[in-house]
Amino acid sequence: MRTTTTRRRSGRSKFQRRVAGGLALGIALLSAGVLYSAVAPQPQVAQAADDSQLVAQGQQVYENHCISCHGANLQGVPDRGVSLIGAGSAATYFQVSSGRMPLARQEAQAERKHPLHELDTKTPEGARNVDALSAFVQANGGGPERPAEHGMALRGSNPARGGELFRMNCTSCHNFTGQGGALSSGKFGPPLAPASEEQIYTAMLSGPQNMPHFSDRQLTPEEKKDIIAFVKSVSEGQNSPGGNPLGGIGPVSEGLMVWVVGITALVAVTLWLGAKA
């Protein structure tokens, strides 16, 4: 009798353990599903649909403003516009957001101007159109891509190192303080003060006009950001290389100016003493 009762109790306990285990497994699976749905990334299909819509909008912007010079397939038009194959979203953003494109006229170098209203990144509509145009060029031509960060996020934490890198790579065209300077054949290194952080970054990636490309192997993203931090510290008056800024024309020009003024004063004093004697 006792053996039968013991067997019944043992069977019940095994059944209860199985039920408890099944319930625990079900709860664990349900919790995992809830947690995954909360933190899972956006589905690939939805993301692809959004990208497709952005590229389609960019194609419309391209056909409205760019196709006459750069061709229906980004191949370029002789004597009107270069090929955009390989230009990427970085070059597109830099040229359009700074007003250099569309060109007002053919000349040695495209000059910065106020962008078209529908391509003005300071307005929500313009920013959306430039994003779409950049996505269209990137999707169909490839090339360097725009950085994911914007504004202050593109300023590095070490402007001192940025100053060293700027003097090594940029001063021959942009001067020691980013004021710009003349080059050959009617071209010039433009002043950097009007450029935004993203424009400076995309210019380093795309190499507009005479400017060389700086890939991430030549200048790492952190080094690019440090250069931007240095340029902005100078243009915003937080840093004056060479001492007295004198309009920010650079330490060599400032030293030359001091030398000329000093020699002129010395000659004047000498002439005054001679006349008095």
TrEMBL record:
It comes from the Bacteria. It catalyses: a quinol + 2 Fe(III)-[cytochrome c](out) = a quinone + 2 Fe(II)-[cytochrome c](out) + 2 H(+)(out). The cytochrome bc1 complex is composed of a cytochrome b (QcrB), the Rieske iron-sulfur protein (QcrA) and a diheme cytochrome c (QcrC) subunit. It is a multi-pass membrane protein. The keyword Heme applies. Residues 53-141, 157-235 form the Cytochrome c domain. It holds the Pfam family Cytochrome_CBB3. The keyword Isomerase does not apply. Signal peptide: none annotated. The chain crosses the membrane at residues 256-275. Its EC number is 7.1.1.8. Keywords: Cell membrane, Electron transport, Heme, Iron, Membrane, Metal-binding, Repeat, Respiratory chain, Translocase, Transmembrane, Transmembrane helix, Transport. SUPFAM superfamilies: Cytochrome c. PROSITE patterns: CYTC. InterPro entries: bc1_cytC-su (IPR009152), Cyt_c-like_dom (IPR009056), Cyt_c-like_dom_sf (IPR036909), Cytochrome_c_Oxidase_Subunit (IPR050597). This is Cytochrome bc1 complex cytochrome c subunit. It is found in: Cell membrane.
